[in-house]
Write a structure and sequence with these properties.
- The protein is mainly alpha-helical.
- The protein has helices at about 10-15, 20-55, 55-95, 105-125, 150-160, 170-185, 190-205, 215-225, 230-255, 275-310, 310-335, 345-355, 360-370.
- Helix 7 (about 190-205) runs parallel beside helix 9.
- About 30% of the residues are buried.
- Residues about 1-20, about 20-30 and about 35-40 have low confidence and may be disordered.
Amino acid sequence: MSQDPPYPAEGDRDAAAHDPAAAAADAALAADAEAASHDAAERDTGTEISAVLSSRGYRVLLLVSAVIGVPVALIAYGFLALVHWLEHVIWESWPESLGMSEASWWYAVLVLVVAGALVGLTISRLPGTGGHIPVHGLGGPTPSIPELPAVVLAALASLALGAVIGPEAPLVAIGAGAVLVMIRSTRLHHQPQAQQMLAVAGSSAAIATIFGNPVIGAVLMLEVVGLAGTQVLVVLLPAVVSAGVGALVFTGLGEWTGFAAPTLTVPGLTGTGLDVGDLLWAVPLAVAMAVLAQVTRRAGLRVAAAAGRRTVPATTAVGLVVGLCAAAYTLITDRPVGDVLFSGQAALGELVATPEAWATSTLLLLILLKGLA
């Protein structure tokens, strides 16, 4: 007894071209076949992931991720402590020795010019580019071992001398680079996939407390390296393990030394409600920010191209512009230059705690000049 074929024969397909019901049936059959193929592929992928997660090699990789989280967190904590100490010396001790109660506007201009020159010399004289190009986004290729000194020195010159940047990108590079140093004499050094996962884990440990939660840092690292789909789970577990260990180290050292690593969390925030007006304002504001981001990125690409051709003059000029922004703010508002300089998370606490102490004109000027800087 013959069975009907699962798909229409050639003659049937010709007839179906003139029959809407038959065409719909053909489309349904094709969709069912595609769905069945997709389900089979998902089952194969799920089986493959399960095999990877349960393998002995992957369990060893998780153990290594936990182990490297300790030294990477120590290195990152030491880097942040050094930046904090240098900031205290340059922006508090030296001005006091010059008879100033706080850094004056001309002092800020001088320091930022020096910062720009030091960064330019570091980039032009040492291997690498002193880290990734910021306008290309957070992340970039993992720095090689010879490039690490330039990353550290450029970051110290920028952060300690008042450039308007945060420590996140340098910590990502330092964490990944430190892992390369630690595994260079092991078999993992010759396994690109394991090397990439451990580099992500090292970067996660280095920024474990910056976002107030190690899991947030680990998830951010997945976006930095551009992983998605089935790769996420395989890479996420080592990153979370290493970030968790790093957070424990940061917390313990903070309690022991009294120096808490900087974090992007804002203290003193209270809950608030949303109304329809807030939601309506969000749409044009989002569009405006998107346009501003594109304009800023295009300007940044031009500056990066110019800096690539004449690095030291370009970085020195940028330092001068940042210093002049801080000087203009201080001369107009009689507030400290630190409001404009540095990454800004330390000043947010003061702003949230005493919003009445800030005039609207001062806030608008701060947004303008800090944005330019």
